[in-house]
Design a protein that fits this description.
By secondary structure, the protein is of the alpha/beta class. Helix content is 58%, strand content 10%. The protein folds into three domains: 141 residues, 3-Layer(aba) Sandwich (Rossmann fold), CATH 3.40.50; 63 residues, Orthogonal Bundle (Helicase, Ruva Protein, domain 3), CATH 1.10.8; 120 residues, Zinc Finger, Delta Prime, domain 3. The strands form two sheets. It has a five-stranded parallel beta sheet, sandwiched between helices. Helix 10 crosses helix 12, helix 11 packs antiparallel against helix 16 and helix 15 packs antiparallel against helix 16. The two termini are 44 Å apart.
Length: 335
């Protein structure tokens, strides 16, 4: 996982070659920032940066092999390594001499760290250069983090700036703020500033400081609804409408939550435990824990609610009238 690589970098274990790949740009950017901080005397302005759509790879290797000037160790960032993905070589903007790169990877410069960035969802694993790069480089995969990986990442983010997240608090933040890493990182910094960059994060603190996502509010709305708290569910619904959320989108999100509850009820009947349910449904254990703490309605009632929501969804898409009122009546009637 990326946090293990970051931990090594922060301890000064900086390797000669890194390959940053994937579409989660925040992870790629954060890795480069950590390398800048880890290389003695390095600042962002002193990083040698190359765009491989504009500069051939052999020019990068020449700079890497030159002795450093004014610093003991150079940091070189080469982005847009399109030669690592499945593309027609004849369509490359530059004539990259990949055989030179293959040889260089076997014996990289001892006075430079070179970061190759391939911000693509998938690389061509069949290519010789891709195999060489993965063999000799430290590979950072910038993939969207989910579940336990995201929880661990949040805890590490807090630790890096002096605050402590427990697993439950990290999971709660994820449910509050969503899964976008840049958004979560911003919220972690906000909480850290509130704590003066030291101390332990609490659930109450997160509720007080973090702006809820529509998805989190829909979770609260649905939870209140299925537990017979009509006033609470309507209050959340009206807040969402005032914030500009569309009834058709809210209907879809509520249906998704009810569908999830149906799956949880079915799996509990089969004897599944919390972690097994989370793994089967590909959701965070904290969300399962919240559902299992509630007395979920019997399966027939949940199925009827799902059917009613499907009817409302069809009405919203095919008829005119007061769109907000249709879903409001559903919430007022209860289960």
């Amino acid at each position: 996982m990326v946090t293990k690589i970051w931990s090594a970098i922060e301890k000064g274990d900086v390797q000669p070659v890194y390959l940053l790949t994937g579409t989660e740009q925040h992870l790629l950017d954060e890795t480069v920032k950590k390398l800048i901080r880890a290389v003695p005397g390095m600042t962002s302005a002193e990083v040698n940066r190359f765009d491989l759509e504009e500069i051939p790879i052999q020019a990068v290797l020449e700079v890497a092999d030159e002795l450093p000037f004014l610093v003991d160790h150079k940091l070189i960032v080469a982005k847009n390594c399109s030669f690592l993905k499945a593309t027609d070589q004849s369509k490359e903007k530059q004539n990259h001499q990949l055989e030179l790169l293959e040889k260089w990877l076997e014996n990289p410069s001892p006075t430079a760290t070179v970061v190759f960035i391939a911000p693509y969802e998938k690389l061509d694993a069949r290519k010789k250069i891709t195999k060489k790069m993965k063999k000799h480089a430290v590979v950072v995969e910038g993939v969207t983090l989910q579940g336990q990986d995201l929880t661990t990442w949040i805890m590490q983010q807090g630790k890096d700036i002096g605050i402590i997240f427990g697993k439950s608090e990290a999971a709660f933040l994820m449910d509050m703020a969503g899964t976008d890493l840049l958004t979560i990182s911003t919220e972690v910094e906000k909480i850290a500033a509130y704590l003066a960059f030291k101390g332990t994060v609490t659930i109450d603190m997160i509720e007080q400081l973090v702006a809820r996502t529509p998805e989190m509010d829909v979770f609260r709305l649905t939870d209140s609804f299925v537990n017979g708290k009509k006033a609470d569910s309507l209050a959340v619904y009206h807040d969402l409408i005032r914030n500009g959320e569309e009834p058709i989108m809210l209907t879809s999100l509520i249906a998704s939550q009810v569908r999830l509850m149906i799956h949880v009820v079915n799996l509990r009947k089969k004897g599944y435990q919390q972690q097994q349910i989370a793994t089967t449904l590909h959701i965070h254990p904290y969300r399962v824990k919240l559902m299992m703490q509630r007395n979920l309605p019997p399966l027939p009632i949940l199925l009827k609610a799902l059917n009613d929501l499907a009817t409302i969804d069809l009405q919203l898409k095919t008829t005119s009238g007061n769109r907000q009122r249709r879903l409001e009546l559903f919430l007022m009637n209860g289960l």
